[in-house]
Amino acid sequence: MIVQRLLDNIPFFWSFTEEEKDILIGLDCYFESFQAGDYLIQEDAEDNALFIILKGTAKVSKRSHPDRVITILEPGTVFGEISFLTQRPRSTDVVACEKMICFTINGETMAQLDSQMQHKIKDQLIEILVERLDQMNQTLLNLVR
After folding, report:
1. Distance CA 138, CA 110 (A)
2. Where are the alpha helices (DSSP H) in 43-114?
């Protein structure tokens, strides 16, 4: 019940029914805890986990510029979607800024879901990617002005 309430507060899960959330909670998806300084993702690693931050923050950087923070990820943020969807190596480092709790799902767990749930997750990821593309386009337009 507590876990489901946590998911209820995250926009990614808003389109999921209570039954679908129960299915996700009951699978091999899991809730991972991280401490400040822990790597959630390492650049060039070949894993396919998708993360959704439930609590805490993390910073994103590139190995070539470790002191330059690309962005700070906050509760509700979904990340790791590129490797999750494409099986490509990780493109950045993601490091916990403080104690964190993430909902994590990988490709093997995704394969256990029925096609309707898989499509719902992919649809959510497409929405996120489109929103990020729109934001990047706006940033580029602002730079040109």
Report:
1. 33
2. 81-86, 107-112
- Decide if pLDDT at 1 tops 70: no
Query: Cα separations (Å) of 114 from 111, 119, 120, 143?
Result: 8, 9, 10, 44
Q: What is the pLDDT of residues 5-34, one digit of tens each?
A: 778 889 999 999 999 988 888 876 778 899
| Neighbouring residues of 30: CB distance < 8 A, sequence distance ≥ 6 | 103, 104
Q: What is the pTM of this model?
A: 0.88
**Rounded Cα distance, 57 and 53, in Å:** 8
Q: Where are the domains of the chain?
A: 2-144
SS3 assignment, position 52: strand
Look up residue 100 and give its two tokens: 């964190």
Beta strands in the chain (DSSP E): 30-34, 39-41, 50-55, 58-61, 71-73, 78-79, 93-96, 100-105
Give CATH for domain 2-144: 2.60.120.10
53 near 74, Cβ under 8 Å?
yes
Which structure tokens are listed for 10? 């995250």
